[in-house]
# Entry
Amino acid sequence: MTETFCLKIEGVEQEFMLDPNLPLLEQLADFGINQRKACRNGVCQICDAELLAGSVFQRYPRADLSAPASLYLCTSFARSDLKLRLIRAEFTRP
Ligand code: FES
# Structure
């Protein structure tokens, strides 16, 4: 059974369960969050976000990041419970 982590997003009451094997960007869509994206490989930088709590593994540019830090949602994987500040996102579900 895969371990899951909890995601909190600044300004959002609801909490979400994260699969550590999937990039954060992929999972946001399932949560009803429309995050701006383009390349999906860490190059265009349009999916940047702020890590307010927790730690992630970022595949590209390769780094182990702990809060406070900036990350790219398309190449980052949860390594603990997280709190994020999304910069270019809108919520499509209440
Ligand atoms: S979508 Fe381009 S860096 Fe994430």
About this structure: The chain is about 5% helix and 45% strand. Residues 37-40, 42-47, 72, 74 surround FE2/S2 (inorganic) cluster (CB under 6 Å). The chain has one domain: 22-91.
